[in-house]
Specification:
Helix content is 57%, strand content 6%. The chain is of the alpha+beta class. It folds into two domains: 55 residues, no CATH class; 166 residues, Hypothetical protein af1432, CATH 1.10.3210.10. It has a four-stranded antiparallel β-sheet, with no helix packed on it. Helix 8 crosses helix 12. The chain starts with 5 loop residues before the first strand and ends with a helix. The structure holds fe (ii) ion (2 copies). One fe (ii) ion binds next to loops.
Length: 305
């Protein structure tokens, strides 16, 4: 008989499990059912931590990831209704953290629904999205960067009156644009200094890795894949990975917003965060050099006002 494999569940996620059965380890290597499929764990038990360390069966992995993400989505919908922007950001960061920890079908599948909730929740109040992007968090990471880029992108889309399906696609693209960084060694990703030329070469692989991951694990629209692949390309051919001059709209838009977000929020020991206006001036120089589209850049500036 095939031995079953069990995976520990994060304590913060236990309350989301209903459909997926949970197990506990009664003796080393011996797992017993703790709650069957179709039942939740009572709030009291959760609040008091009255449960042992819990596990899921490996075969339930994708189903479990989906269930947790649905829980996140419900939390986001509730926080939007209640006007709790900080709550929305916190849940979004947890969701993206899960996605980036292990980008696979189960974790990426619930993202379109999240984007639908955000787009319909904020379509009449784009100002809230800018607040979402500027809510500061001490721990700056790819997760927070991705959520910030998404918020700025949605705000751009609403300002530009793009259709809701297009807004959802671009929002998803923003959320996933750096998913390829999950395969870049963390010594390089978190280096507290400027990267060496060799390290930068490794880093430059992240758009193509991202493209592969998104294609492998999901059936997301081609525009989303293209945006992830092309967000570091420049219109004068000086970008990477391919050095192309014909860059998709998604690639161009995410490219500008990515730069803006990285410069305004990234606090590294060798560089402090820039003031938003100074950042726009820096990006404008790249517009003058023919790296970014003037039309998209100007629209982005207006969307920030
Ligand atoms: Fe990137
Ligand atoms: Fe980025």
């Amino acid at each position: 008989m095939k031995t079953r494999t069990y995976i520990p569940v994060r304590a913060s996620q236990i309350r989301y499990y209903r459909r997926v059965p949970l197990f506990f380890e009664s003796a080393p290597g011996v797992f017993q059912l703790y709650k069957p499929a179709g039942m939740g764990i009572s709030e009291v038990r959760l609040d008091e931590g009255l449960h042992p360390r819990l596990f899921i069966e490996e075969t339930d992995r994708d189903e479990a990831a989906l269930e947790v993400h649905r829980g996140f989505n419900q939390d986001i919908a509730r926080d939007i209704r209640e006007g709790d922007v900080a709550g929305v950001k916190e849940t979004l960061c947890r969701l993206v953290e899960e996605t980036l920890a292990e980008p696979r079908a189960g974790t990426i599948q619930a993202l379109p629904e999240t984007m639908g909730i955000l787009v319909s929740g904020y379509s009449d109040q784009p100002g809230v999205l800018r607040t979402l992007a500027t809510i500061s968090t001490k721990d700056y990471s790819t997760v927070i960067h991705s959520v910030n880029v998404m918020a700025l992108t949605l705000s751009f889309c609403f300002f530009s009156r793009l259709s809701l399906p297009e807004t959802r696609r671009l929002g998803l693209c923003a959320l996933l644009h750096d998913v390829g960084k999950t395969e870049i060694p963390s010594e390089i990703l978190k280096a507290p200094r400027r990267l060496t030329a060799e390290e930068f070469e490794v880093m430059k692989a992240h758009p193509a890795i991202g493209e592969r991951i998104i294609r492998q694990v999901s059936r997301l629209d081609g525009e989303i894949v293209q945006g992830a692949l092309e967000h570091h390309e420049k219109l004068d051919g000086s970008g990477y990975p391919r050095g192309i001059r014909r860059v998709s709209f998604a690639g161009q838009l995410i490219g500008i917003i990515d730069c803006y977000e990285a410069l305004t929020n990234e606090e590294r020991p060798y560089r402090r965060a820039q003031d938003p206006l100074d950042t726009l001036r820096i990006i404008k120089e790249d517009v003058e050099r023919g790296k970014f589209s003037r039309r998209i850049f100007e629209k982005f500036c207006y969307s920030l006002v």
